[in-house]
Amino acid sequence: MNRLKNIFEPKSVAVIGASATNGTVGNAIFSNILQSNFQGSVYPVNPKYNNVMSVRAYKDVVSVPEIVDLAVICIPNKEVENIIKQCAEKGIKGIVVITAGFKEIGEAGKKIEDEIIEIANKNNIALIGPNVLGIINTQKDISLNANFALKMPRSGKVAIISQSGAIGVAALDYAHQHDLGISKFISIGNKAVIDESDVLEYLIDDDETKIITIYAEDIRHPANFFEMAKKANAKQKPIIIIKTGRSVRGAIATHSHTGALSSSDTAYDSLFAQCGVIRVETLAQLFENAKGFTSLVKPKGNRIAIVTNGGGMGVIATDAAERNGLTMTTFEPETLEALKTKMPPTANIHNPVDIIGDADAQRLNDALSEIAKDKNVDAVIVSILPTSETDMNSIATNLCDFAKANPNLPILANLMSLEAEPAFEELLNKASIPNFDFPETDIRVLATMIKYYNWIDQPPIEITKFEVNKNQVQEVIETIKKEKRIHLSEPESYKILEAYGIKAVDYRVAIDLDKTIIAANEIGYPVVLKIISPDIIHKIDVGGVKINLKDENDLKKAFNEIVESIKNKKSDAKIQGFLIQKYFTAKGIEIIVGANLIQGFGSLIMFGLGGTFVELFKDVAFRLAPLTKQDALNMIMETKGYQILKGYRGQSSYNIEGIVDYLLRLSQLVTDFPEIKEIDMNPVKVLEDGFGIVVMDAKAILIEEQKIPLL
Amino acid sequence: MNRLKNIFEPKSVAVIGASATNGTVGNAIFSNILQSNFQGSVYPVNPKYNNVMSVRAYKDVVSVPEIVDLAVICIPNKEVENIIKQCAEKGIKGIVVITAGFKEIGEAGKKIEDEIIEIANKNNIALIGPNVLGIINTQKDISLNANFALKMPRSGKVAIISQSGAIGVAALDYAHQHDLGISKFISIGNKAVIDESDVLEYLIDDDETKIITIYAEDIRHPANFFEMAKKANAKQKPIIIIKTGRSVRGAIATHSHTGALSSSDTAYDSLFAQCGVIRVETLAQLFENAKGFTSLVKPKGNRIAIVTNGGGMGVIATDAAERNGLTMTTFEPETLEALKTKMPPTANIHNPVDIIGDADAQRLNDALSEIAKDKNVDAVIVSILPTSETDMNSIATNLCDFAKANPNLPILANLMSLEAEPAFEELLNKASIPNFDFPETDIRVLATMIKYYNWIDQPPIEITKFEVNKNQVQEVIETIKKEKRIHLSEPESYKILEAYGIKAVDYRVAIDLDKTIIAANEIGYPVVLKIISPDIIHKIDVGGVKINLKDENDLKKAFNEIVESIKNKKSDAKIQGFLIQKYFTAKGIEIIVGANLIQGFGSLIMFGLGGTFVELFKDVAFRLAPLTKQDALNMIMETKGYQILKGYRGQSSYNIEGIVDYLLRLSQLVTDFPEIKEIDMNPVKVLEDGFGIVVMDAKAILIEEQKIPLL
Q: Are residues A601 and A698 in the same domain?
């Protein structure tokens, strides 16, 4: 049994702190439960009263003469800990702590909260809060409104999880004004015990809930959330989230390009993208999308038909379709023929269909029934304005009948009326036909639905496992740890990459000029010469790199210059040797590939084209490791640089499969070794199709010893 | 007197086609006028009736026993022409033709419409329509509702111009539901005589109208529109437009990069950007912005403060501020001190200020009055959720008082309530405090307002006039016309550019190998050799270009190869000679500059960085000629490439002033010579600061002879 069952489906509720005084939280909650037609028993607990609102009160929860499934606590913060102990004693397994004044007020509050967490966990109590509005379950055989601010909403398919009480209020306000039915509402506040992932787990199995909306300022356990989202996908329950704090750029200490370009918000973007969760920017989008999904009809594709009684709406809808990547479908000749027969001569029978201003409900029906038969139509948007001929109620009634007759065709409406909140909206809502103010909203919502259903329809993809040399990486890491450093030298970075099948350009390491010359002869001129030192992170800045050395003379000169420059600029640097590399002139394109460990999320893998692409246009893509093959491919395709890789305007194409392979190998490396904090391969040269991909420069950093998570 | 005065402010109106039969257009219009409390006299004209709705009817308009200012015509389309003749005879100067069935139904309809236009113009009649809903003037001493679909809206500051009747209905629907006051409404339909620019001219001088919204599918006379928009700016009346048809890519025949990247929609974008008109994508944005402007308070800057009673709303608003380029202000120490004293300890006194859930109207006032004093605050957003302590009506009342006491501080609200359409919304609307569903809308609207006021506050800039050699261009053009061609050769293109002070890389023209060698010696190796032929537009495709020729041998070989290749690939091409050009290796950056004549708009000037910037990222900017210096600068700054030009990450900066100069010179050239259809300079090499800018390749095309407009 899911442990949130006690919270959402209690047979008995104790309101600890229930009060007879108007305007108190304890009064509001108790009266809300009484008024919500709760199907169980509710007990006021308050030593000050004999009864509250005519209901016999108890001096403490232990005295309640029945098993209590859920305790709602609304007493001063200092008393909460003690009361929770009593609840535990009573064997209560569900608690909602309404009271604020814990972690959010600072150290003192956090201390009490930690105590509470301990008691709850020890006694296996599902505890919501503290610092919450409360919860709502509209399910008929429960009918529980245990919160202090909100009236009972209309029952429906949408669940709301809100980290903020304020946004919870706004959400219910919107739902009320737009007649959006709610299944469950839960304010999760400080998330001391129960967090969004736990609530998701419950809602996924909740038959009443079909669509889940979340307001979150953070996700407590990204990995749990990811697992739950995948389960929701399996049940085709869309999750729509607004995760705020984009503007709070996660301050990630960083030494690499990859690090500089990623933020904790990038990790969230990746997390959501990798589990099909729909992230939106605004509250309006959150609820519009929720409403859109209420029909739960899966579009077959993205070819839409628009039917309107006013040309202008068709034009607006067409623009919006293009903006949102939908296709205005072309009708079959039979459809056109039928429409021609049934519509007046002034009508426009091509998509967007204009049945013109004097159309009544019958004409709309005639048009829709032909359009529904057309195999090129994946979804229909009906945009009808009030005219002297339009009786919106009969249009809505007909539309509902039409929807019933065509259960597999997604229908979105945009019926307008000069009268506020007319009856037809209720009709449409009951028939689960989403109705919005403007056709552009229908289109935007439909585009989101199509994207979602495409996502969940993907076949499941296993994570590729390559044969690798883990020992080689282990050795490198141990050496570094032994030397109490965190920066890998360039050859060390190559070594761990090579162990996982990622190739560097031909190189040698030498410790003096003579060995350097031998190495250069082995590799063949021209060569690159670089200093190797764990103390030098930005080699170029200290004159530690010389390129395009054509012969031994060049090499000698470069060697001496480097030695001289380091002596001047970084005399204390411990020199491990010199790196001699092939100076690579083969035609190809430069990319950047990296990984960056984000607290709580794991490693964020980055891909982008090099140079100005990455620097100026931030034309990069991220996904969290471990990557699937599809993830890697999506990353590449997400960038504009993909156009170049696949062969731009008749130019050469590049080995995209090879890049995918490298991304997957990198993903496996950082997954196997979570002590790798950052890896930056920049540049990586991708040769034309049929040739290889070689890393030209690389750096890597380990997390500091004390931060290595237990494996 | 503006000729639309007869339309909007008539003393007497004749409804020709007024009918006593319910459900007819003639009935709806006449009854709407009667019911609108029109302050003049209205005469039904219909030979079928003695009276209509108890008002004495006339058999024809000539019989009306008074001067008629406005005739509203709603009779079958075939009779309209005749009736307009009668109106002209009667001396009527204002006509609204409601009737449809003209240009929009094809050739036959267009013919009648043309006749109507002729009569109207000959008799100086301001004619609206045909194919319209009608007009509305809410002004108290007029109070005219002469349309067949809409009820009289609440009077207010917003005028609506709609090309589509349907969108007109939607607009009034939105206005009604959101209590947005309307000054004038006009449906302009086919725009046979009066178009949007004419209506603008009237509205600019209309004291009732403060904000103008437009739905347009095209702009009849872009130049007129531009002039009117500038006049509206002078009066600080914002114009907000939704111009549809973005998806209908204007099919512009083109031979150049510039052409390929521009569309008629780009011309619209440029037009609006150059005259401060606010273009929006969606109907929701159109009206939200209109509502935002109703306060008409100009923000001093973009530093905003947010006051809320729920932390979540503050977070959402902060994200939205960043997304919209607004700055969350930092309060002065005195403000923080005062807030600390006045707010409870659990409140957040830093921006976004959270006065917490138990705040009443007084606490909100206390916070606002301190924030208003802070010199770092340019605008305030007040986001209040319903809690047990919030009496929205007293909050709204206080907010209105606060707004009155701070007339120079823009205030946007976001007061929510679980009750639909409560009284407080009316209070806010009366006090012109825009109130939206979510704080994100307040922020988006405020950002638009700030952008607008910044635009109109710019000092007026004259068009720079350079000393140029017009004759030289004239000569080139005459030669080409004489030879009945339209393509300029590369040297011809250089010649017209040079006449306007735009320099090409050092080049010579030679007619044989000997002269080619002499020319190369003059210029100095390495050189580029190109074929010159009016018949060869894409030189590279026929092997007509050879670069990096290092010496005479290279040159000879290249010469022969070109001759051979042309013989094979384009033997019929008329060869005018060979172009010898310096092969330019100096360090610098390549840009693309061009111009493309767009029917009705004049020349669209393009700027972008060369290579993948322009090709893949479409990182280009457009403005219509003639450009101001600010226009040219804005173009450059609009591109991402600007980051490179001004010196990206410590790299060299480039001569931006020089690019501005070239853009202005090109603008002057295409303005002086409207027979130039396209000019494409690609690439233009911009050297590092202090060095020059040189055109490396150029082509130009004239419009075909018969299309040259009269000068």
A: yes
